[in-house]
Amino acid sequence: MLARGTAAHPAERAWLEACRPAYRALLAEDPVTEALAAAAIRPRWTSALVTAPPLWPAEETFTARVPQILQLTREEALEDLAVGLGRAAPRILHRDDLPERACGLLQWTWTHAVEPHWPRRRRILETDIVARTARLALGGWATAISGMRPGMRWLGGGRLQINSNANPPRELSGADLFFVPVTMSGGWVNWTMPALGKAPACDPGGLPRRFAVMYPCAGALTRTGSALPATSALNALLGQARAEILVRLDTPKSTTHLVALTGQSLGAVGRHLTILRDSGLLRRSRAGRSVLYYRTPLGDDLVGARQ
Q1: Whole domain around residue 37: which residue ranges?
Q2: What value does the mean pLDDT take over residues 145-167?
Q3: Where are the beta strands (DSSP E) in the chain?
Q4: pTM for this structure?
């Protein structure tokens, strides 16, 4: 997003306007980093130098993950950049500290553009995972993957179509496949370079063994804090905070999910859910480790009447 200068959605515009000038200044001051960013972030290919799949366990922190890029040699890094460029990388990048430069670019981006906003973004990502997990439990892979990203769909029989490109199929039995939500408007697919990762990254035939599908969070999630419309009558009956929660429960959601969507505190959301549930407007059920809340027919009727 910093490279292309286009906000993923209106909620990201203020963030982009605040962070991009410093990013552009960083590149202007360092021709090597500027050339690296231009080579690594291409319209149809993003280098594994800056977007390697997560390791297992997935809870590994940013500070622990980034230094592993230093395992790459200059030749391995240049080879990966050449894939996206369709030609050899510029001469300015033929230097022994190229992996260190990639780490520096990622570290700067994390420190200046991501970390200050990370608690909010993490809530958005976690709530999307909860929602997808619930859909998986209720309707299987076809339901969970539906709408995840353009061109992606479950074909059945253990077959997954990840995009509409005319590429040959790949057999991934025994490989790790991660689904990773992002707060951007688009997504991508990547895999581990042989030199990255604590476990063998490739099978004996050279096929990567760790893949990741990055997909955009549901649009409603990214607009954290924006309220859905509710009539003055519904607000007067329930109170504005409880009315918003009831309206948002058009699909099952967890308490954490509702906190991210409404901007209310965890304690406040919990109290509102208890009141709505005791009033017969909500029910709850467990999906894995999460407790999901959803409207009863009475709750649906009450929300429908606001129209």
Answers
A1: 10-118
A2: 84
A3: 41-42, 45-46, 153-156, 159-161, 176-182, 188-191, 210-216, 253-254, 282-287, 290-295
A4: 0.71
